[in-house]
C-alpha cells in the first residue's frame, strides 16, 4: 500500500482527520498531503490527550516523521496556516506548499460575508474559498509563488510525491469535505466550490489514477450536515439530542444537523470514489457500550451486525472502525 487516499462519503465531518492521524502514526508515511478545497474544512485529531484542530496542515502532523504538504489545487490562507504552525509548534522544514496553490485574501472573505446568497441561502463557512476559486477560474487569483511570506515553504508537491512513490515510500492523501458537498456530484447549489471526490482530490495534489493503491471512504455511523441543503431522514433537534448525536462545526461552531445512516447515499459514494476500503467512525456514539473498544471481538453484537450489514450492502470491506475521539480508539481490520 503505497498511495492511500482518504475521502468523506457523506457531507463532510465524517472524521477524516482522526482516520488520517491514525494511519500516519500506524503506517509511518513519508508524506501526508492535503487535497480538497482549503481552510473551509476543519479536521480534528486527538493524540495523547491533546486536541489538534486543523484547517490547513494535514492531519498526519501527529506523526513527527512525515512531510506535510498542501497540493496545487488547494487554497491557502497564509494567516490560518502560520497560526496553526505556531499553535502546534510545527517546524517550517516539515511543511511544503505547492507554488501553484491559490491564495485567499481578505477581499475574498469580505465578498463572501457581503453575499446574502452564500451566507443565508447556502450556509457557506465564509472562509473565502468560493470567492477565491471563482477568481482562480477567472485567472486573476494570486498563487503561493507570488507571496514573499511563503517563500521558505514553497515546493513542487507533485514532484515530491512522485519521488516517494518511485522509491516505494508511503503517501497519505487527505481529502476534505464529503462526496455530497461536491460541486458536481453533490446537492447543488448546496455544495462547496469544487469537486471533492477521490479523483478530484488526487488531481489537487498531482497524482494520476494509476498511482493510487487504496481509496478509503470514511462514513460516520450516522449522517450530519452543516449549512443548508437536503438531508434525507433529518431528525428534529430534540431527537438528535436524545440520541446523543449533538455535534458542533469545527470551523464555524454551528450545530450540525443529523439523520440516520443512509445506505443509498453510501452506495453512491462508494462508486463515485472507487472505494477499496471503508472507515466507519463514531460507532461509540451509535452504540455507547463500545466506547474505546479496540478489538473486533469486544464489540457488542449489535455493533458487529451494523458493521457487517454495511459491508454486505456496499460490497467493500470495513477495515477501520473508530470507537472514540482519541486517535488510537480504533479497530484496524486491515491485517
Ligand atoms: P471535514 O473535512 O471538515 O469534513 O472534517 P473531518 O471529517 O475531519 O471531521 P471533524 O474533525 O470536523 O469532525 C469529527 C469529530 O468527531 C471530531 O471532533 C473528532 O475528534 C470526532 N471523532 C472522530 N472519530 C470519532 C469516533 O469514532 N468517536 C467519537 N466519539 N468521536 C470521533
Ligand atoms: P463553503 O465551501 O465554505 O462555501 O461552504 C459551502 C457548503 O459546504 C456549506 O453548506 C458548508 O457548511 C459546507 N462545508 C464546506 N466545508 C465543509 C467541511 O469541511 N465540513 C462540513 N461542511 C462543509
Ligand atoms: Mg470538519
Q: How much of the sequence is in beta strands?
A: 15-25%
Describe the global form.
Answer: globular
Report helical residue fraction: 25-40%
State Rg. 19 Å
Number of strands: 16
Bound molecules: guanosine-5'-triphosphate, inosinic acid, magnesium ion
Q: What's the order of the H and E elements?
A: EHEEEEEHEEHHHEHEHEEHEHEHHEE
- What order do the strands of the largest sheet run in, or round the barrel if closed? 9-7-5-2-10-1-11-14-15-16
Please report the distance between the alpha carbons of the first and last residues: 12 Å
The description of the largest β-sheet is: 10 strands, mixed
Low-confidence stretches: none
Structural class: alpha/beta
Question: For the residues shown, what is the average pLDDT?
Answer: 97
What is the count of helical runs?
11
Structural commentary:
The structure is a single chain. β3 and β4 form a beta hairpin. This protein is of the alpha/beta class and 335 residues long. The protein has 11 helices and 16 strands. The protein binds guanosine-5'-triphosphate, inosinic acid and magnesium ion. The site of inosinic acid (IMP) has 21 residues, from α5. Guanosine-5'-triphosphate binds next to α1, β3 and α10.
In short:
With 335 residues, the protein is an alpha/beta fold. It has helices at 16-27, 78-87, 106-114, 116-122, 129-138, 157-166, 198-205, 237-242, 263-273, 283-286, 301-314; strands spanning 3-8, 31-34, 43-47, 50-54, 67-70, 75-76, 95-98, 102-103, 154-155, 171-174, 214-220, 222-225, 257-260, 277-281, 318-322, 330-332.
